[in-house]
Every structure is written in structure tokens, then in C-alpha cells.
Amino acid sequence: MSADLVSTLQARFPRLAPRPSADHPAVNAPLEDLVPLLRCLRDEHGFDLLTDVTAIDWAPGASPRFTVVYHLLSTTRAGAYVRVAAPCAGPEEAPVAPTVTGLWAGADWHERECYDLMGVRFEGHPDLRRILMWDGYPYHPLRKDFPLAGIETELPAEDVAAETGARVVAAPMAGGPFVASAGEINLTEAEPRAKDESWSDRAPQPGHTPLRQVKE
Amino acid sequence: MATDYNFPDSAARAATAAQEAPSEFQTEKMSLAMGPSHPSTHGVLRLQLELDGETVTRADPVLGYLHRGDEKIAENMTYNQFVPYTDRLDYLAPLANNMAYAIAVERLAKLEVPARCQAIRVLTAEMARISAHLMGLGAFGLDVGAWTVLLYSLEEREKLYKLFEELTGARFTTSYTRIGGVTRDVPEGWLGRVGAFCDQFLPILEEILKLLTRNKIFMDRTVGVGVISRADALSYGLTGPNLRGSGVGLDLRKDKPYSGYEQYEFDVPVGTSGDCYDRYLVRGEEMRQSVRIIRQVLARFPDGPWYAPDARRIFAPPKDKVLTSMEELIQNFMIVTEGPQIPAGEVYFEAENPKGVLGFFIVSRGGGVPYRLKIRSPSFCNLSILPKACQGILISDVVALLGSMDFVMGECDR
After folding, report:
1. Which of A6, B164, B213, B259 has an alpha carbon within 20 to 30 A of A62's alpha carbon?
2. How many CB pairs under 8 A join A and B?
3. Residue B72: which of A24, A113, A141 has the nearest Cβ?
4. What CATH number has the domain bearing residue B172?
């Protein structure tokens, strides 16, 4: 059935390519075909539930760097899924994809989350704000170039920050992060180890500012 | 004499009253932050409400107070190390989360787990469903003024927690399921105690439901309140009891069975009007059906291994073997340091959890660490309807609506 769906879709949208997938039928679509394709899947193939919208960061320098991935589920065809992926347009630092909030109202929060954590800008989204991080947070933490420990930034509560001088500091990783590495690499490289061994809990990180005390 | 047989709902009455008032009595809009520390927001949800009198004119949910970056953390550890983090998603049903994550990775690794392991997982997932729904009902009752229900349901949950503790060693964060199996086999006599729990639980469940189902106060607070239409529920991607309450019979245990759910007979309760009362009724019936499934699992509990024997590069060998045999020691070392070796590929697996459909989208480039792991959390999607569902209802009905949605912020914020 999965090959059927992909070939039916390819007849309608000739620029589609099958996406390697072990579980559900999957297609790679160009960004321009994305919205018509999803509308066709919803209206003509019974995929009426948008279960997930997410993006993958293929590391800085990769081309395309970001891919948006949609998972649709059919409530009428007994648990049939389809996966649609599309490479984002735009410059590497500011990827762009069209919004699908016009098709599913539920895409609203998914796209906000994706913008918040990955920095994918969904064009036409009615209210593209951050959702999990606070407004005004300067980074997109799920990007591959964002460190696990976090980056020191301003405290979002300005009045508290003015009074205490407190900042949002990077997590104390005690010499870590002890990170295992992905990919087909040998045991020594895959073993969890500190990526930056220049500092630890005993020898603090150079340039790290400890929290200041509350003024009397 | 003309008699008015129209009984507009409370929100409509409030809206008309506001319109009919003379201009000097026109009210100003008021802004109210409900939460993040509010008993009816069940954790750290904050609703930024705009009120006209007691009617909500705009609701803006503010999330993220419990955001821990689970997806980022997952990219930085091996597949096995992430199992305890799944406990902390929907922390009212950790056993069900463990199972969903384990099955997702097993699909990626093309690993079949034996029948006994599947049966244990189904059994624990259904017990987790009962415990989560008990908490949901109890808290819902508490929100709309029925104290007693919580006391009854917490007592039953305590019995379940005792059983969980005996099986997994922990009451709350169980981390029981492993990729390719479960941590340990069921203890001796434990299955009998689960059966005994079911026998005594059903009459108590009837009693709990009797406290609410025909309760005049409860019905006044919930019938026709917080109605979510079928079309809205689908459009906003609601799942679980919230979707079924709106009349869509989607249950992945039936529609796309996993872990051997196809062997068991059970019904999928579906609501008709999509109000808070329907969502309550659906949860009540689901607990009965879960007991039915548990009894079927117990009746034909399969023998055999409780982990996949062919998972040599994924599942850590038994501890006694590790301490006595060289080969198993090396294998254990490899799995702990390198992580389980999972082939490259993509997988998206969704399981029918108590709160709705919990999905894991895993992108692997081979090796022991996921390249990208996305958690599709049911509470997040269910709450996305709040700006629409809260529009025009009374602020006291917001409390009933939140109670009936039964969400967990640990899972919503991840």
C-alpha cells in the first residue's frame, strides 16, 4: 500500500521523491509543493490528523541545513501514517518554510515550537512567538551548534536582574558534558567524554562569572 | 402568557447581560494571570486571561516553565541512558512512556521482543493507564468541588504503586522497560496479586464513578461545558480521551496495534457531545476496559524469555553472567560505553498513552546515540486548543475544562 500512495502522489506532484523509510510511506517534497501536497493528503487521502511537525538540523554547513518533517495520521483508514519532508529555503542561519496553520489549526503550536527551538521561520504563521523558551531569548537551543550546557544570557525578569545582577548561567557540567558521539566511529571516539577538557569542577571555566550576591 | 423555554448557557447569558447593561455600567476588560501556581492548572501551566466580567474573551496559554530540553539531552546520550528521562514526561504513567520509547527504538533496530515481554508491557501499560486516569478523575472532581473522589482514587493508586514497586523497584519513576526487553521478570506471585487488585478494584471503581456520574453538582459543572466539536478536535490534533470524547474513535491500540494488543478484546468508548462530562465518561469506561485487558493478559500469560535473545549488541547481558563470564563482560562494557548499536534510519512510533498519543520520531545515523529525537507529547497538542476552547466561557468553566483535559506539564514542556 505504501508504494501505491507514493506513486499516486508522484503522478500528481512530479517533483516528489520517495524518502527512504523503514516504517511509514515517506516522501521528499520541494518546499513549493508542500502545502498543496499536505492539502491533497488531507482532503483526498483521508490523512485528517496532523500529529507532528518538527525539523532536523543537519549540522552547520550542511546543505540544506534544515529539513521540516510532517507526520500525518488517518483516523478513517485504521492507523495509516505518512511522512512528508521538505528542505527549508533561505540562508543557513534563518531557514524558512511555509505555514500549514491554514490546513490544521493545531499546526500553530507545533510551528511555534519549531521556530523557538530550531529557528525555522514559518511564513504566514499568524503569531510566530517563542513557546517553550521565554520571549526575547536570543538562541535556538536545539540547533547543533548550541552547546548542551547552555549559554550565559540576560535574566528575563529585568527588575530582578537590576536588583541582584543575576544572569542565566550555563549549567555546571562538572568538567562535562560527558557526551557520547553518534555515527559509525570507533569505540574510543564514541565513548562518553568531556568535549572541552580545559575546565572541571575543580578548575573553573575561564571567563565564567559566578552569581553575584543579593545587595543588602 | 409567553413562557421562555430557552435556557441559554451561562456564558451566553453573561454576554447578553453585558450588552444590555447601560453604558455607565459597561465593564473594562481585565487581565488575569491564572497560574503558574494555581491548583487547577495541574502543574505549571499559566493562562493569561483577558476577562470581561467573568467571561473569558481571550486566553493565551504560557508554557515552558518545566522545559528541560529533553530532546537536546537525548542527542547527547546513548539510547539506553535516555530511558529514565521518559519517566519524567507523563510522570503519572511512566510505564507507558518507557514502553513507547522502547518500541520506537526497537522498530529502528528491527528487533522483535518475545511474547512474554510484550505481555508484561501491555500489563504494565494498562495498570499505568488506570493509575493515570484515577489521578485525572480525582483531580477533575477536586477542581469542580467533589473532594471525596480524590480520596478514593488515591487509595487505589497507592495499591497500584505497591505493585509497581514490587515489580520495578520504584513507585514513581520506574524506568522498567529496556530497549529489547524489560529490566527483570515479574516476581513470584505478583501476577496473582495483580488479579486480586482487579477483583477488588472494579466494585470500588463503580463506587467512584457513582459519586460523579449522576451527581447533580458535577453534572451542572460539566454537562454542555467546554464543548469541543469533532472538527475542532481533529484540526487541533487532539488525541486520547479528549479526541474520543468528541466522537472520533481513534485508538491506536485498535487501529495500529503494537506489542500484541491485537490479541485482546476491548471496546473503545466514544463520546457524543464533546463536553467535559463526555471526557469524564470516556475515562471512566477506559478504566473498566483496562481491567478487561489486564484480565485477558493474566489468563494467557506466555512463558519464555522476557528480553529479545538476539539483541546482543543492544540489551545488556544478565548481571550474574557479566560478573562471571569474559564475553558477557566485554559485551556489557561495549553497550555501556558505546551505547546499543542502532542502524541508520528514521522511525516514527506512536503509542496510545493515558493522555493521548505519545510519539517518538528518531533519526539515527548509526551508532549508540540518536541524531535527533523528537517527542510528540499528547498534552502539548491537547492544550493547543485552549485559546479557542476558552473563548467566551466563564472563568469557573475554565477550571472544569482544564480538569477534563487531564494534562501533565512535565510532558507538555519536555
Report:
1. A6
2. 153
3. A141
4. 1.10.645.10
